[in-house]
Structures are given as structure tokens and as C-alpha cells.
């Protein structure tokens, strides 16, 4: 679990630029993982926009202990927004024959190829549940949807991922 | 799940984010025809390098160091200011009094993209005309120092 001291978060909330910079550096891996899994080609733009929103809205966070869930929620929403925009412009191509076996050095690229075939909302639920390790209730809160929606969306996302992975 | 795609930003992208989150700072960038390591050997040397290109920094002295966090005293024509500093390769942010300063360097082809912000909380955007005049000159001085191969003092 990522931990952030209250004094660091409080200092960043007052506009201390050094505290904001340290927070930015420490939050970037969390935001990068979520945006990378959801926004794919748009991941860098999504991560930058999410980090900017986090720094600008930091004063709205009342409890520093809630920083990481709050950050994940902003990153997931920004990544889904970017991915939807990209999907409208150019749907991803898929070539099952190009997939390597598990353990292959190109595994990460293969995961990415399969993720690209899923809807942004499916990538978001996989990222929050299977990558960030959130419970169904936490994922529901962070995506702003009902718990039942998370359950059904996760089921469909895992099935879609497996189908494309094994085809 | 370590094979999931991820994204990592370069130091200049990080500094741009920070500059957009700090409404009183003014950001300038330029390309420098030298590798990042050479550029940062001057820009990241707060005591001996920075006073050679920063207009208002006459002298700077590191008072304490704890990993990437430093305490720095910088002397300007208006007096001495103590800064809290975060310094790591290619990235530096300083906060002292009501002044914020940032620098970052990232590879750009065979050269370097260098970004620099400065801002004064009390003067806010009223300081921008001065900064818009002085900061490009500071970066030009840094580029001359680096590209000209001048040796540090």
C-alpha cells in the first residue's frame, strides 16, 4: 500500500512547490499504471492531465489518508475519457496471430494488444480490480457506478480479455 | 500483473505539469545542443553552476542535504533567501520566501530540452513582463556555457 505522510500532503495543499513536486514524483507510478492500462496510446496525455488535475484540486481533499483512492479515481476517469476519444477517432486493430506465448519477452506488448480490443470502461475495471487490487465496493466508488455494475462489467471484461487472449 | 502497460513521464513533462498547477509561475523552454548530462552538470550544480546563468543569483550555498532534499541559501542584490530544494538528476524545484523556481532537462534527439520556471507569489503575473525578458536570457547564457564548452569556475 502506498503511504503518504500527512505533513507532505498538507504542505502540498498550501501550495508549497517542493512538496507538490515530491507528491507528483511519488504519485506518477500509480497514475502511470492506471493510465497505461486504460488509455494505451493516449496514456502519456491522460497521465499528464490526471496529475495536473490532482495538483490543482488537492485542496479539496479533506483527509490525506484518502489520497491514493482519490488519485486512482481521477486517473481512471481521465484515462477512460482519453480512451473513449481515441476509440471514436480510430478503433484498434487486432491480429491474434501476433500474440506470443506466456513468458515470452513480448508478453507486455501482447497484454497491451489485447487490452486495446476492450472498451475503455472494461480496461478501467480490470485496472482497478486486477491491477490496483481494489474491492468491488472500492472500484464502484472510484468509477461512480453501482457495485452490481462493477460485478457484471468485471465479469464481461475478464471474459472478453480471456477470449481474445486465447483465440 | 507486472506486464500491464504503464507510462513514465520525462522530467520536462513533470515540470510543465507543476508549472500549470502554479498559476504565478512563468515557464520558458529551449533546446540546447548538448547531451543532458553536460547541461545538468551546470544547471544541477546549485552552488557553482546556477549563479553563472541566473540573473539575480549572486551566490548560493548548500546548508544541509538529506537525500534529494536540500536547504540552500541564495544571495541576490535584494538580500539572502533560504530555499527548500528538491534536486534529482534532470529535475529541480526550489521554494523560498515567496519565490518558486524550477528546472528540468530531458533528451531531445542528440541534444537537450531544457525547461525553467520562476514565479513570485506576492507579485504574481505582474512579474511576468520582467520574467519574460530575463528568463530567455538566462537560458541563452546556460546554452552558451554548455555549447561553448566553457569550464566551470
Description of the structure:
The complex is a heterodimer of chains A (167) and B (153). With 167 residues, chain A is mainly alpha-helical. Helix content of chain A is 70%, strand content 0%. In chain A, helix 7 (136-143) crosses helix 8. Chain A is globular, with a radius of gyration of 17 Å. With 153 residues, chain B is of the alpha+beta class. Chain B has helices at residues 11-21, 36-43, 128-147; strands at residues 25-32, 59-66, 69-76, 79-88, 91-96, 99-108, 111-120. In chain B, a hairpin with a 2-residue loop joins strand 5 (91-96) and strand 6. In chain B, helix 2 packs across helix 3 (128-147). The longest helix of chain B is centred in the C-terminal third of the chain and has 20 residues, at 128-147. The radius of gyration of chain B is 16 Å and the shape is globular. The mean pLDDT of chain B is 90. Classes of the chains: A mainly alpha (167), B alpha+beta (153). Chain A binds chain B through residues 15-22, 24-25, 28-29, 32-33, 35-37, 40, 43-44, 47-48, 51-52, 55-56, 107-108, 111-112, 115, 127, 130-131, and chain B through 1, 3-9, 13-14, 16-18, 20-22, 25, 69, 84-86, 88, 91, 93-95, 100, 102, 121.
